[in-house]
Design goal:
Layout (H helix, E strand, L loop, with lengths): L2 H14 L12 H4 L7 E6 L4 E5 L5 E2 L4 H13 L1 H4 L29 H10 L7 H16 L7 H9 L2 H12 L7 H12 L2 E2 L1 H12 L14 H14 L5 H7 L4 E3 L4 E6 L3 E6 L10 H13 L15 E6 L4 E9 L1 H14 L5 E12 L1 H16 L3 E5 L17 E3 L2 E7 L3 H8 L2 H4 L4 E3 L7 E5 L4 E9 L3 E7 L14 E8 L5 E8 L8 H25 L1
Parallel strand pairs: 9-10, 10-11, 11-12
Antiparallel strand pairs: 1-2, 1-7, 3-4, 5-6, 6-7, 8-9, 13-19, 14-15, 15-16, 16-17, 17-18, 18-19
Helix pairs in contact: 1-13, 3-5, 3-11, 5-8, 5-9, 6-9, 7-9, 8-9, 14-15, 16-18
Amino acid sequence: MLSSVNDHLQAIVDSVRGQDGGEPADYIDVLKNADPDKLALAMCTTDGHLYAVGDADYEFSIQSISKPFVYALALDMYGPDEVHQHVGVEPSGEAFNKLSLDNDGRPANPLINAGAITVNQLIGGPDIPVEQRSEKLRDYFSRLAGRELAIDQRVLESELETADRNKAFAHMLREAGTISDDAHDAVASYIAQCAVLVTVEDLAVMAATLANGGKQPVTGEKIVSSEAARLAQAVMVSSGMYDASGQWMVNVGIPAKSGVAGGLIGTLPGQLGIASLSPRLNKQGNSVRGVKIFRELSSSLGLNLLSSNYYVAPGIKSVERREDADIVELQGMINFTNAEKILRGLMHRRLPSKKLIVDVSGVTGFNKAGRDLIKDGLMKFKDDGCEVAIYDPDHTLSDWTFADGTTAQAIRDFTASFSVPATREEVYRAITKPHSWWDKKVEGDAAEQGSEFHYSDDDRYVGFSVQEADGDRVVWTVEPTDNPKEDHEWDDTSLIFDISEDDDGETKVNFTHRGMRPHDRGYEEIAKTWKDRIAKGLQPLIGREENS
C-alpha cells in the first residue's frame, strides 16, 4: 500500500527526467563539476514517515536552503524583536546576490545573501570564533536531519575563492553597523553554513521539522519553537524563491527555499516536508527540474497551501473487526496527505481478514490525488488476495474501478422493489399511511412535506420528519430527539420511496432504507422485517386503496 506513495513520487520524477534546461552553478568549481543528471525527490510526514525516490542517498551542499533554518535558530536565541532590528522580513524583488538594504542599513530579509550573512553573525554572538560558530550550526543541522552531518571542505574552500561579492556585502554591512565581525570571518562563517552536506532525505526531514512546529518528526526532539518555525515558513512564502517568489506562490503555493547546488525544499504546515535535487539551475538560481517537480506535486497531488481542499480532518473514523471482514469508516476531505495517512494506518493495523469493507459515506470529498492513492492502496489489498467492497451511497469516490480495470464490490443500502396494478396516486396514498401498513403505533402526519411523525412502543422510539412528499417520491428522515427510549440504531438513516407508473397501468415502487448498511450489526434482522412489512402490509394495503 505504502508503495503507492513512492509510485506517485517516482512518476513525477520520471515526468521531468527528460528536461535538460539550465546548467549547474558555474561560479563555484565544485558545483560546476556536479553531475547535472542527478535527480531525487523525498517527502517526510509530520509523524515521521519518509518516502524517497531517485538519487536519494546522493550528498550535496545545502547552500541557501540553510537560511530559513538559521533564521529560526536566531529567532529562538534572541527573539523576533531583536533579530528584526538586524534584518527585515520584506521581499527584496531582486536576485539573491544583490545588496538590498533599507534606510536603517538592514538587509531586506534573511533569505538573500546579505540577510543570511547578518543572521549568521547572530549565532553565538559577535565574539565567537568562526570555527566555533560553524560547529554550532553543523550540530544544529545534524539535529534537524536526525543524523550526523559534515561540512564539505572542498565546497568551503572553493566558495571562499570566489566570494568577492559576499565579502563586499560584509564590508558594507560592517560599515552600516549591521554586523561587527571582520568581513572575511563573517563570510567564512556564512559559507561554512552553506557547505554542510545533506541528502534529499535529510532535507525532507528538516523541512518536516519546520512543518511540525519545530519538533523533529523522527527523533521527537523539539529543536526550535513553534513561533520560530512559523516565522521561518512565512519568510519562505514571500522570499524563498528570490525574485521568482511571487510567481512561485501563484503557480505552486508551497512555502519553499532553493539552493544553488540544486536542492529545493517545501513545507506544508502540519503535514509534510518535501525536498528535491537537480543541479541544473535557471537564471534565478532555482533548480529547473526541481521547480517542475514542485509544480507537479502541487497540481497532481493537491498540495497547494492556498487550495480550498488543503485542510483535512483525520481520515479514519473507525475500524471494526468482524468474523468475516474488517470494516473501515473514512471521514472528512481526503487529499493526498490524508490518503497517505489512511493507507499507512491500515497497514499498521495488519488487517487479517479476507474481506475489507471501506465505508466512505462520511467523506465530504476526494481530490484527484486522494482518490487515486486510495484506489491504488485498495488495489494492492485486492492483489494480496483480499476481497474489497466499498460503501459509497453518494458516489463520492465517483467509481469503484481500479487502475487494472477490475472493480471493487459495491455495497448498497437495503433496497426492495415491487410493482402493483394500481395508479401512482393510489400507491402514494397507501405509502403515506404508515400506521395502516407499518404499525398502528405510528402517530403523526407522514404525507405532508415538513410534517413529523414517530413510532413508539414500550422499548423504543423513532422520530421522523417528512423531507419530500410530492407524489413521485417520499422521503422520511430519522430525527434525533430527547426521548430516553430513542432507537439510535436508526440514527442518520432515511426511508425513501421512489414511485413511477408505466404505460401498462402498473406502478413500480423502489424502497431504500438509506444508511442501513449491509455491514451494520442487526442488518439481517432489519432487512427481514422490512420485507415482511412490504409483502404483508404495504402491498395488500395498496390493493385495498385501489378498491376503496
